[in-house]
Write a structure and sequence with these properties.
Blueprint lengths: L2 E6 L3 H14 L3 E7 H7 L8 E7 L1 H10 L9 E8 L2 E7 L1 H5 L8 H17 L2
Antiparallel strand pairs: 1-5, 2-3, 3-4, 4-5
Helix pairs in contact: 1-5
């Protein structure tokens, strides 16, 4: 599977707050938060499903991976989504290990694994 997704009993707002805290512990910050529902509705499109995209970054890790292969920048910053599906809050992300396969560079696979493991830990702490 290209993604890692979990379900939580927390609200979207509680999930995002919890995620922010766990991300800080791993030296990741939320650079930007995109509320898709709000944006589509302000543009006149009917979309009633709460859906938030968080762009997250750890500057040290970004510098490390970009120094080895600039194509990885196409995947940065990392994205974590928090949304509602059938009345349940879900938190997920595309797996860095899956994305990194697209650049065919074995030298950065271990970096992608480390980042993925850390982000999975942050998500798991948030449920």
């Amino acid at each position: 599977m290209f993604h890692y997704t979990v379900e939580t009993n927390k609200s979207i707002e509680e999930s995002i707050q919890s995620l922010e805290k766990s991300l800080k512990e791993e030296k990741f910050g939320i650079l930007w938060q995109f509320d898709i529902k709000e944006t589509l509705q302000t543009k006149g499109f009917d979309f009633d499903q709460p859906y938030h995209v968080l762009e997250v970054c750890n500057p040290k890790e970004a510098q490390r991976v970009l120094s080895q292969n600039q194509l990885v920048g196409y995947f940065l910053p990392c994205k974590i989504v928090v949304y509602e599906d059938a009345g349940k809050t879900k938190i997920g992300m595309p797996k860095p290990t899956t994305l990194i396969q697209m650049v065919n560079d074995d030298s950065i696979k271990q970096l992608a694994e480390d980042i993925e493991n850390r982000l999975v830990t942050c998500i798991d702490k948030s449920i």
